[in-house]
């Protein structure tokens, strides 16, 4: 019998509750003709306190969009699906109910599970292993912990050999169309040729597919040098007293517009194009003035630093295709170009290098110097206004509480929703009870006019004296699948807003200009190819301001616990397994105060478990970044000692003499062991061989790590999709076995001329090629092979 619903229906036509009797013909006509206001409807629901969403569909397609909306609103939103493509049965539905239960919803199990009598417990002693991954060590801490979390960047001089620089083979130089024939392009080409390389210059539009087409025509180049990062080639305005590394006044130039990260987008397109073309030649990205190696070397181009953030992630995700990052001075001469060629010839593991007129330097992470402090001692909020972007979010609200305790006179908490954000009213009342004046304001930080108007509205009796930029957004994906929209979404909130804050406040006498960055941008974390560039930019902007006499501090945080953006996120779970525990907020705030009392414009604050982190960070690619961390050196030495035996022999050779059954058993042990290592299990036996990887906990981020580990062990070039195309351990073992050993007879042996002998192998290769192909490439293949257009 038709009746009004007991549960309110929120319509994506009106973005508001709709009574059942209003669902008449006119409503459905509007439903067909008007735009879908799904995003606005989710915002309304989140604003009313709803934080858990269930998508009832054949496959979840909206869950990510719902959670992204929550992140943008600083609300702890979670979304759960019901069924999945190819998994539409009752078992998957029960798993979805279990997810809801894990998020605090109590399903009526009696309606889906039959009644059953109690079952006696087993009589054997209980196993002492936890079924769930241990979380006790997921949060760091300790009475002296904040001091031990502080690190900084250091540039170490590298040996400058006098011997000849030898390059061979064909080197590709990738440039933007406007760069071709420019001074730097000509200098690099001449240098490469002068040291023995054959050089070809390539240029393509920004689409990855276009780069794939251009690169596919190249026959096994020795390397690729990209000058695309220099697409943002305007020199930011520089005061006359800033000098370059040779003591000369730095040149003046036009302003780089906020969000002008064309070089980042072009570089990402090139990386994706190389992956699509299956080009494994190392890619070296060149920048100019994107890093600073010391006080006499001012950072000139903070926008180009975003490419360094991308490169640090690419090194983790695409270890065989990545060469490194090289920063040149603003006026490179023949000596600088020679050093660049020497870097290219030497290759990894030295892959973050600054080449200067006085020599080449390698980037290192080192512990902070506790003895360095500002003349004024510890920082405290003075009279006036302290502005906090993301001020009602998890990090911003905790910071606001601490600043209120420390005597802040006026707190201006800025967010996209202002006082309608969840919890904003209660936070304002709580802060007001400390005696601070509190203003909660709505402002789109990406809107320069709106931000300018907000600053102009600050009362004259409370002038702006400090800025804390904590606003952020997450939209993680592997580098190969990142879209321009995902990159821009993060840049808009973090980078563009930071630049506008810099421009609008650089004439003010601020006591603090603090940027909340991330360890992802400083060290490089798989799965965060869009988040890392924006945070690397923040670190560079702080150094840029510092060189110009402006106050600035950027803190590259490890993940925060208790409501931080990474708390519960898939990437954060991966970090936990890899030795990066969550930071207790109270201790993190103490660490922030210590950083503000120091003299470094950029710091890293993270609770590294070096024994675990070092192994995870260098598992698929060596790195010199950690060379000056004693605990990391010790972990690497112990790892090398353990690996000196069996793993020194290639996997194919170790299994070659075994019979097929024994070979499969050994390969199964290897794959289970790698899956267990990626997921953080103590033993391979914890990994079910018939369960799907998605059920085991693998996602797009951990799939990249597993693929890289298997590539390193097998010597194969497996695409990321191999984990999803062969979705269980058993399936993957069968695939690897066929790739490693089903090679067909040697030429001249019986059966060598049989056209059917290598059918299985050819099919595997064809499947891999089709998996990696774009839609345009697939259509071209079908038209060519089958005559179908």
Can you offer a commentary on this structure?
- With 789 residues, the protein is α/β, with parallel strands linked by helices.
- 39% of the residues lie in helices and 12% in strands.
- The protein contains 28 helices and 19 strands.
- It has a 15-stranded mixed β-sheet, with helices on both faces. A two-stranded antiparallel ribbon has the order 1-2. Strands 3-4 form a two-stranded parallel ribbon.
- Helix 19 (610-617) crosses helix 20 (630-642).
- The longest helix has 22 residues, at 484-505.
- The radius of gyration is 28 Å and the shape is globular.
- The model is unreliable at 234-259 and 743-765 (pLDDT under 50).
Computed CA radius of gyration, to the nearest angstrom: 28 Å
Strand segment tally: 19
| Contiguous runs where pLDDT drops below 50 for at least 5 residues | 234-259, 743-765
Average pLDDT figure: 83
Q: What attributes characterize this protein structure?
A:
789 residues; alpha/beta; 15-stranded mixed sheet; two-stranded antiparallel sheet; 28 helices; 19 strands
Summarize the structure.
Helices cover 39% and strands 12% of the residues.
Could you give the topology of this structure?
Layout (H helix, E strand, L loop, with lengths): L9 E2 L4 E2 L7 H9 L4 H10 L4 E3 L8 H10 L5 E3 L9 H13 L42 H4 L1 E8 L12 E5 L8 H12 L3 E5 L5 H9 L6 E4 L35 H15 L6 E6 L16 H13 L4 E7 L5 H13 L5 E5 L2 E9 L17 E5 L4 H12 L4 E6 L8 H9 L4 E6 L5 H9 L7 E6 L14 H22 L6 E7 H4 L8 H17 L5 E5 L12 H8 L7 H12 L5 E4 L4 H8 L12 H13 L8 H5 L4 H20 L13 H4 L3 H15 L7 H4 L3 H13 L17 H14 L2 H12 L3
Parallel strand pairs: 3-4, 6-7, 6-8, 8-9, 9-10, 10-11, 13-14, 13-16, 14-15, 16-17, 17-18, 18-19
Antiparallel strand pairs: 1-2, 5-12, 5-19, 11-12
Helix pairs in contact: 2-3, 6-10, 7-8, 8-9, 9-16, 13-14, 14-16, 19-20, 22-24, 22-26
């Amino acid at each position: 019998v038709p009746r009004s619903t007991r549960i309110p229906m929120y319509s994506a036509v009106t973005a508001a509750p709709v009574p059942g009797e209003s669902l008449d013909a006119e409503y459905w006509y509007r439903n067909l003709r008007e735009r879908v206001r799904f995003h606005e409807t989710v915002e309304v629901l989140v604003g009313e306190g709803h934080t858990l969403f269930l998508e009832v569909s054949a496959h979840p397609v909206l869950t990510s969009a719902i959670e992204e909306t929550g992140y943008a609103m600083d609300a702890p939103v979670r979304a759960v699906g019901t069924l999945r493509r190819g998994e539409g049965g009752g078992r998957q539905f029960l798993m979805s109910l279990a997810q809801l239960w894990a998020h605090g919803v109590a399903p009526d199990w009696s309606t889906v599970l039959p009644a059953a009598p109690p079952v006696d417990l087993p009589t054997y002693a209980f196993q002492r292993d936890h079924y769930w991954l241990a979380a006790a060590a997921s949060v760091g801490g300790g009475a002296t912990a904040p001091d031990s979390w502080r690190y900084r960047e250091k540039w170490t001089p590298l040996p400058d050999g006098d011997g000849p620089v030898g390059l061979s083979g064909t080197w590709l130089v990738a440039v933007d169309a406007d760069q071709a024939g420019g001074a730097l392009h000509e200098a690099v080409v001449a240098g490469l040729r002068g040291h023995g390389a054959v050089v070809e210059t390539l240029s393509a539009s920004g689409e990855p597919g276009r780069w794939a087409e251009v690169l596919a025509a190249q026959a096994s180049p020795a390397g690729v040098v990209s000058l695309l990062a220099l697409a943002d080639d305007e020199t930011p305005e520089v005061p006359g007293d800033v000098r370059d590394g040779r003591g000369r006044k730095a040149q003046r130039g036009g302003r780089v517009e906020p969000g002008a990260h064309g070089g980042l987008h072009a570089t990402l397109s090139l990386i994706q194009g190389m992956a699509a073309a299956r080009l494994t030649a190392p890619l070296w990205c060149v920048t100019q003035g994107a890093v600073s190696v010391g006080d006499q070397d001012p950072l000139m181009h903070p926008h180009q630093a975003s490419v360094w953030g991308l490169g640090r992630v690419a090194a983790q995700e695409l270890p065989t295709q990545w060469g490194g990052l090289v920063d040149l001075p603003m006026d490179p001469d023949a000596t600088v170009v020679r050093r660049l060629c020497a870097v290219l010839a030497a290759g990894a593991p030295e892959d973050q290098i600054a080449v200067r007129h006085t020599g080449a330097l390698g980037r290192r992470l080192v512990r902070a110097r506790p003895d360095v402090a500002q003349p004024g001692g510890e920082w405290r909020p003075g009279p006036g206004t302290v502005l906090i972007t993301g001020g009602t979010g998890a990090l911003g609200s905790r910071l606001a509480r601490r600043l209120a305790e420390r005597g802040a006179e006026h707190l201006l908490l800025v967010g996209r929703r202002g006082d309608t954000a969840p919890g904003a009213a209660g936070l304002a009342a709580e802060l007001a009870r400390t005696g601070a004046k509190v203003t909660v304001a709505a402002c789109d930080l990406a809107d320069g006019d709106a931000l300018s108007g907000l600053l102009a509205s600050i009362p004259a009796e409370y002038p702006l004296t400090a800025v804390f930029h904590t606003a952020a957004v997450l939209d993680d994906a592997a580098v190969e699948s990142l879209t321009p929209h995902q990159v821009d979404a993060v840049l808009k909130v973090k980078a563009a807003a930071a630049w506008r804050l810099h421009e609008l406040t650089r004439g003010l006498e601020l006591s603090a200009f603090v940027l909340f960055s991330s360890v992802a941008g400083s060290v490089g974390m798989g799965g965060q190819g869009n988040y890392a560039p924006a945070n690397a930019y923040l670190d560079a902007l702080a150094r840029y301001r510092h060189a110009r006499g402006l106050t600035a501090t950027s803190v590259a945080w490890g993940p925060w616990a208790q409501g931080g953006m990474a708390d519960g996120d898939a990437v954060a779970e991966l970090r936990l397994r890899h030795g990066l525990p969550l930071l207790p907020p109270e201790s993190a705030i103490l660490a922030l105060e210590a950083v503000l009392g120091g003299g470094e414009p950029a710091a890293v604050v993270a609770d590294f478990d070096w024994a675990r982190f070092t192994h995870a960070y260098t598992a698929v690619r060596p790195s010199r970044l950690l060379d000056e961390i004693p605990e990391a050196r010790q972990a690497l030495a112990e790892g090398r000692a353990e690996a000196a035996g069996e793993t020194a022999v290639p996997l194919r050779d170790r299994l070659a003499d075994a019979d097929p059954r024994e070979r499969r058993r050994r390969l199964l042990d290897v794959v289970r062991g790698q899956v267990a290592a990626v997921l953080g299990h103590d033993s391979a036996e914890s990994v079910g061989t018939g369960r799907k990887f998605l059920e085991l906990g693998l996602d797009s981020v951990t799939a990249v790590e597993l693929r890289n580990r298997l590539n390193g062990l097998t010597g194969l070039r497996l695409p990321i999709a191999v984990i999803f195309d062969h979705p269980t351990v058993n399936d993957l073992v069968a695939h690897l076995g066929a790739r490693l050993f089903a090679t067909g007879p040697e030429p001249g042996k019986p059966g060598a001329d049989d056209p059917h002998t290598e059918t299985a192998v050819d099919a595997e290769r064809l499947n891999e090629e089709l998996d990696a192909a774009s839609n345009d490439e697939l259509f071209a293949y079908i038209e060519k092979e089958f005559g179908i257009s």
